[in-house]
């Protein structure tokens, strides 16, 4: 086995945001050497990496030269130069997840087509090369409203997704390649994280449930385990494992799914990396998602994915009407509450809805954790001084 | 409240070893700015601190100038220049634990006298200004063998402690101030970590048990919770809380105790910082000892000290007859075992008995964890290539 621990081995990470930062907790724990590149001088990964540099992740030459410095290359964001990854692979550098996997994911039109080809259940869709093509399809009645419009690329954390109810809404959508997805009424939005290593060992995490705000269309809580029937949970884990097999990915694959009104599971989209829906695992799981990603890409044995206790995650997003140097108002109050752990990503400037951190609430009793999570949400505020 | 999170606030840490490194996981999680000083260029804290410098922690001017750069100063090792801490306190810099606390701890003769003055149960002892004075006391019969010899200062992780059975053993002891402690036969060696913040909030962790090797006089496992009667555990926590009150410390205080044959609890010694006996808490507790230390010294609310699951800690020490670049032989095998987490401190060179890391084994069933801990101990080896 390669000696990764306190050795000359070098792991490269494309992207230095909060996902990279939390991955670095694990590389530090194992004393695995890390090289990180991010466009921003202020990247949360700037410290705790052995080597940090700034650079454009979409630039071929930048990614190529960075990748040549390391033994294994991974990423915390999909928006990277895939041609450079292909060149690095051809030069014998291990890239996990591979460019082949990324090819099938980074464009939503291609991703959806892949599910169809692989007989993986997903909502019916049509793809369009441009905003104009899409508008013509709506006007000709080829696409009926309401429909879910998704930008083919650049969609990330809900950006580039809109539910179009009236023709007026269409003016809001972005230019460029896109898809129109049938609006499938669903009971629950679920996610399952699957880990896979080069040796082919596969492990799925318990099903989590995104709990939405009753009125605002926005995820409020990620709940683990999901409060659904075990038959549905088993089905969701099985579907997630099929998706993982289809992609033959290495590392983590976060599979977002819908539980339809008639308890069918259909795949929404995937992310080939640690994921917001897995943050609860740092406090709740035997092996958190970041350690698991590291184990997977280094071809180490996968860890136990089960939970020690119930976990709920609340995102800390910038409050509306607040821009400027960040202040976490009432954070000392939530730290008084049982089983509450705030994670502060380290972004110095807050903006409305900017992801500034998250809070995990763990408890033996999930219902109790859910109650405390509500208090947390009603108490802490991300504002500017 | 002071805004510690993503702010200009600066926390200083004297010492950049493994305790500091694990404390930095928590300062990163809260995005608290850190300044670290350590004698070694190779210190495990060199990365992940916002600012790192080398320097002699026993040098007055070095500690003074370093301390003036920060708002709150703490340490991960007691061997620091206390006069400099006093000067810093007089200049209004917060030093936690305070120089007053450290004064009563850093010298074992003074520490033992303090327990006697405070009516805290401890083994009978006599103190001596020099090795010669001590030898005279043995020869005159003032001290009877067997006795426990302890160097008054510089004792750390068992160094500077010896059980003297015959007069010949005395040749082995070090020069300088020392104490002779009555050899008290005990059932168990226990420890309790107590956290206290400036507001006076106090929290004790569950009692842990050091399990010794049946023949070699060496701790093999730290077991939480200790496998003792609840009445004894309650007594141990109560004694630890009394010690904490007596010291009026701020931060963590690890209280090492003996359970005597007749179930009395007597105090052995204390450490005013995160402690080896609390490493299990990273995986097992709702609030790990490093986060708790940070909460305490920043006068934030203390976290829940209870455990999610049973925890056992095994130290990873350098194997005998191995010196040189470290290799963790069979680490991939122990990573296959349930609930096993290796912590690699990042020291590049191994030496016989050098503390290179630790492994935590967590499980709902403590007996099962203990079984796996044994497998871990029989499997992994810290060798040189």
Can you describe what's shown?
Chain A folds into three domains: 10-95, Rossmann fold; 124-181, Dna Ligase, domain 1, CATH 3.30.1490; 186-384, D-amino Acid Aminotransferase, Chain A, domain 1, CATH 3.30.470. In chain A, strands 10, 11, 12, 13, 14, 15, 16, 18 and 20 form a nine-stranded antiparallel sheet that branches. In chain A, strands 3-2-1-4-5 form a five-stranded parallel sheet, sandwiched between helices. The first copy, chain A, has a four-stranded antiparallel sheet with strand order 6-9-7-8. The first copy, chain A, is of the alpha+beta class and 385 residues long. The first copy, chain A, has helices spanning 18-29, 60-67, 82-90, 99-103, 108-117, 131-139, 230-247, 281-284, 289-297, 331-334, 366-379, and strands at residues 10-14, 33-38, 51-54, 72-75, 94-95, 125-128, 147-151, 161-164, 178-182, 186-196, 202-204, 208-212, 219-224, 251-260, 265-271, 310-317, 324-329, 340-344, 349-350, 355-363, 381-384. Chain A has eleven helices and 21 strands. The longest helix of chain A is centred in the middle third of the chain and has 18 residues, at 230-247. At the A-B interface, helix 1, strand 17 and strand 18 of A face helix 1, strand 17 and strand 18 of B.
Short description:
Chains A, B: InterPro entries: ATP-grasp (IPR011761), ATP-grasp_carboxylate-amine (IPR003135), ATP_grasp_subdomain_1 (IPR013815), PreATP-grasp_dom_sf (IPR016185), PurK (IPR005875), PurK_C (IPR040686), PurT/PurK_preATP-grasp (IPR054350), Rudment_hybrid_motif (IPR011054). 2 copies of one chain form a homodimer. The first copy, chain A, contains 11 helices and 21 strands.
